[in-house]
């Protein structure tokens, strides 16, 4: 015993650490190698191995069936060293038309039923692959996927299938790993292929647009998906819950009504459901049912629920949906493996990963075919060359003592390659006939065309996309089919907006970013000269910067410096009292760190007659139809693609009457051009050049829209000099030009322009100085002057940092001291 303890081979280990490592290894084995499908082919390892074993047994569609026991034996013997029952159960499910949207196995014999009957033993059943399964293995022999060692390194198996069909979505998948689970519903093949074509044509497609092609899952057992909210959540985030209802209809039998169940929710056991309903009736938990029987046959499902004379079918049905599996909840978790890691995917991500997989497969297939074609062309070129000098070739071969020497002599004397020399030596004399020579030349010509085509695939993304699109069309033509599952609205999905009265509101947003809404009725109408109602109690460094009167159903668009657009319904803004501070806007929107809101725009609708115009610091302008922003994600959408050194300055809604766009730079350059000079573009685009800078270091500081030349523009410089000028005084130029001088810059004005405002004499101007002071100026007190002038002092004593419009502040003199620091609104 003492010798054993002193043995140097004994190692001390930490049992806690060892258990953790062992369990982690086990977990990853279950996650990656057992329970979860690959995002590319939608197969778990066991299904992939079953199909590969069947392929090796030549069990393609149209071949003779083989015993399931033989298939299972090959699978567990060569690829999947687990229990034969587990493998056979997987094979059986692949053959069940009520489990798979598109079966992968064509089974002969008893493969179970929707009543929960198990399949016959594997020695009694036979199987082969379906035509659809053949699409998953297409081009497997062309080095399209990586082949990896099997469990004992005695043979190879594919790491993934080179599938032509997005099997993950079409057939779905379910599995429980360690600490995670997947539950992906099946979908309609026609809808999925059309969606793939749409993503291929437009990689920036939105989920709303994509759901026009894939509105919902499509289960092999049919049924009704009740409610769309969960579908949208699942497609967007990868997680969601949907209700599936049995499809029923009502028949009349004398004075009694009969409920007929035509289709059941996915994975519901019919026999168990009938037994459950019978027990509920027996226990008097469901009233009004007199008899239940199963009249299903090979033509389809028919479960008959006869009602009593006084029973109402609608009430009984609602009770059945509530208390039985006639309505179930399907929890969608779109979890699958990508690069040996489990991840949750949205619908668009899954489609894009499949398209990328197809690109990889086609490129690898093309390289394989190209190498094969080049090798064959090389041999044919040698044969053609040999035929042209056949007498010399025959002389050399006859003079050689052995076949090996003949090859060497051909290589040395005529500069043939070794492969060409071997082919020439093996050539039959019959190939010297005129017809055979012509065949060689024709074959060589065809090969050269093929090589040129294959090389064009590798060189052009457009050609590659064309091939993928053609393949999608082939799949569409072969496997098209109508939806089996209907989709109906659920009352729970009714938007809360329908329950909120559409009342007028006052929305105020302060300079520091606090927002609130107050009913307009709280601001009673006052006589002229009244002191006004306090709109918000602000801090010394804050003031009301934006102020809207709108309705609760209206929408506020928030555009950030990074080109993202968020929107918020007015009724979702916290309602407060007149003196409440409000809530920080950043807490209502999903902004990333350091992202700043540049524009807040109210709109009552998303009319196609309106457009949203964006202006960037580098002088780019972009116009997008407002309807493109009618339905966006909670985390916003990309409204404009910005260069790395660019940022958004502002955005404005252009009404049908908008005529011009007006841009001003820091160095007092400005341009006015017709809005029609900027055509409408999609959301994820960059825009076009709005203004060309004359001076290095210049940048856009502000921009606006103009409806008429009679509108007045207020321009303010950093030293507080400002002027009001009619829009008509600014000469109309072409978009992208350098424009004209906006303000004559002198030592008095300072070097830079701070911003512009469209003059509204019912509003005041609020200037924020670099020292943090705020100065309110009545716009009526600012004098008008021509374009190329400096203007007059508006703010003295400190440099101006920014300007904005704000509501007028009207107070009685005697109450001035009581209302200091409070912004007020007069809504007379």
UniProtKB/TrEMBL annotation:
Name the chemical reaction catalysed here: ATP-dependent breakage, passage and rejoining of double-stranded DNA
Q: Which SMART domains match?
A: TOP4c (SM00434)
Q: What's one Pfam family the UniProt record gives for this protein?
A: DNA_gyraseA_C
Q: A cellular component term (GO) from this record?
A: cytoplasm
Q: What class of enzyme is it?
A: isomerase
Spell out the Acidic residues composition-biased ranges: 811-828
Mind listing the GO molecular function terms for this protein?
ATP binding; DNA binding; DNA negative supercoiling activity
**Keywords from the UniProt entry:** ATP-binding, Cytoplasm, DNA-binding, Isomerase, Nucleotide-binding, Topoisomerase
Report residue spans for region: Disordered.
804-828
Q: Where is this motif: GyrA-box?
A: 526-532
**GO terms for biological process, alphabetical:** DNA topological change; DNA-templated DNA replication
Other notes: Few gyrases are as efficient as E.coli at forming negative supercoils. Not all organisms have 2 type II topoisomerases; in organisms with a single type II topoisomerase this enzyme also has to decatenate newly replicated chromosomes.
- Functional summary from the UniProt entry: A type II topoisomerase that negatively supercoils closed circular double-stranded (ds) DNA in an ATP-dependent manner to modulate DNA topology and maintain chromosomes in an underwound state. Negative supercoiling favors strand separation, and DNA replication, transcription, recombination and repair, all of which involve strand separation. Also able to catalyze the interconversion of other topological isomers of dsDNA rings, including catenanes and knotted rings. Type II topoisomerases break and join 2 DNA strands simultaneously in an ATP-dependent manner.
Q: Which family does it belong to?
A: Belongs to the type II topoisomerase GyrA/ParC subunit family.
Q: HAMAP family, from UniProt?
A: GyrA
Protein name as it appears in the record: DNA gyrase subunit A
Species per Swiss-Prot/TrEMBL record? Sulfurimonas marina
Recorded name of the encoding gene: gyrA
């Amino acid at each position: 015993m003492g010798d054993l303890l002193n043995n140097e081979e004994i190692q001390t280990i930490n049992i806690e650490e060892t258990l953790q490592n062992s369990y982690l290894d086990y977990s990853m084995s279950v996650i990656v190698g057992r329970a979860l499908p690959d995002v590319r082919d939608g197969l778990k390892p066991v299904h992939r191995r079953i199909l590969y074993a069947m392929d090796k047994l030549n069990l393609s569609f149209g071949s003779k069936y083989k015993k399931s026991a033989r298939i299972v034996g090959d699978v567990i013997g060569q690829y999947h060293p687990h229990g034969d029952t587990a493998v056979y159960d997987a094979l059986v499910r692949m053959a069940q038309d009520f489990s798979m949207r598109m079966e992968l196995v064509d089974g002969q014999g008893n493969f179970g039923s929707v009543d929960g009957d198990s399949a016959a033993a594997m020695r009694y059943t036979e199987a082969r692959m379906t035509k659809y399964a053949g699409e998953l293995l297409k081009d497997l022999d062309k080095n399209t996927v990586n082949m990896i060692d099997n469990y004992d390194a005695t043979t190879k198996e594919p790491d993934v299938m080179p599938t032509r069909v997005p099997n993950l979505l079409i057939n779905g998948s379910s599995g429980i790993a360690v600490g995670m689970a997947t539950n992906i519903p099946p979908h309609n093949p026609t809808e999925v292929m059309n969606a793939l074509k749409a993503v291929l044509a437009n990689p920036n497609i939105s989920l709303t647009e994509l759901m026009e092609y894939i509105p919902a899952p499509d289960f092999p057992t049919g049924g009704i998906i009740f409610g769309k909210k969960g579908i949208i959540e699942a497609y967007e985030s990868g997680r969601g819950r949907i209700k599936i209802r049995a499809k029923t209809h009502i028949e009349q039998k004398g004075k009694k009504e009969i409920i007929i169940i035509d289709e059941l929710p996915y994975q519901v056991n019919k026999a168990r459901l009938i037994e459950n309903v019978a027990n509920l009736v027996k226990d008097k938990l469901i009233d009004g049912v007199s008899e239940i029987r199963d009249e299903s046959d090979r033509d389809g499902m028919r479960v008959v629920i006869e009602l009593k004379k006084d029973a109402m079918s609608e009430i009984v049905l609602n009770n059945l949906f509530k208390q039985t599996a006639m309505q179930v909840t399907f929890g969608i978790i779109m979890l699958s493996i990508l690069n040996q890691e489990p991840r949750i995917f949205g619908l668009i991500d899954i489609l894009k990963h499949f398209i990328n997989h197809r690109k990889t497969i086609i490129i690898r297939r093309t390289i394989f075919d190209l190498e094969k074609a080049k090798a064959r062309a090389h041999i044919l070129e040698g044969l053609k060359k040999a035929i042209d000098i056949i007498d010399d070739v025959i002389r050399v071969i006859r003079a050689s003592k052995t076949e090996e020497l003949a090859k060497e002599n051909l290589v040395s004397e005529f500069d043939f390659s070794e492969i060409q020399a071997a082919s020439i030596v093996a050539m039959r004399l019959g190939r010297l006939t005129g017809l055979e020579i012509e065949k060689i030349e024709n074959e060589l010509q065809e090969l050269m065309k093929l090589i040129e085509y294959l090389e064009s695939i590798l060189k052009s993304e457009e050609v590659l996309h064309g091939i993928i699109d053609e393949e999608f069309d082939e799949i569409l033509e072969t496997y098209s089919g109508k939806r089996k599952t209907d989709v109906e609205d659920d009352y729970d999905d009714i938007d809360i907006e329908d329950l909120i009265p559409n009342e007028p509101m006052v929305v105020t947003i302060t300079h520091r970013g606090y927002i609130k809404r107050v009913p307009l009725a709280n601001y009673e109408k006052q006589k002229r000269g009244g002191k006004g109602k306090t709109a918000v109690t602000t801090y010394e460094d804050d003031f009301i910067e934006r102020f809207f009167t709108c309705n609760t159903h209206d929408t506020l668009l928030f555009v950030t410096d990074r080109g993202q657009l968020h929107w918020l319904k007015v009724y979702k803004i916290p309602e407060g009292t007149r003196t409440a501070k409000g809530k920080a806007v950043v807490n209502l929107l999903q902004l990333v760190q350091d992202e700043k809101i540049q524009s807040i725009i109210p709109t009552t609708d998303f009319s196609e007659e309106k457009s949203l115009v964006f202006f960037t610091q580098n002088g780019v302008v972009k116009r997008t139809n407002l309807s493109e922003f009618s339905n966006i994600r909670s985390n916003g959408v990309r409204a404009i693609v910005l260069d790395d050194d660019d940022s958004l300055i502002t955005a404005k809604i252009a009404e049908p009457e908008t005529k011009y766009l007006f841009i001003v730079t820091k160095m007092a350059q400005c341009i006015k051009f017709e809005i029609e000079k900027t055509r409408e573009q999609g959301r994820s685009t960059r825009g076009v050049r709005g203004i060309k800078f004359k001076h290095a270091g210049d940048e856009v500081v502000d921009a606006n829209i103009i409806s008429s030349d009679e509108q007045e523009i207020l321009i303010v410089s950093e030293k507080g000099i400002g002027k009001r000028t009619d829009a008509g005084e600014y000469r109309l130029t072409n978009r992208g030009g350098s424009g004209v001088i906006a303000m004559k810059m002198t030592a008095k004005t300072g070097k830079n322009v701070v911003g512009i405002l469209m003059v509204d004499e019912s509003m005041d101007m609020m200037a924020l100085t670099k020292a943090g002071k705020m100065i309110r100026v009545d716009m009526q007190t600012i004098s008008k002057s021509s374009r190329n002038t400096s203007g007059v002092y508006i703010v003295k004593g400190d440099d101006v940092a920014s300007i904005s419009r704000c509501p007028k502040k009207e107070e009685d003199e005697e109450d001035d001291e009581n209302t200091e620091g409070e912004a007020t609104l007069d809504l007379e």
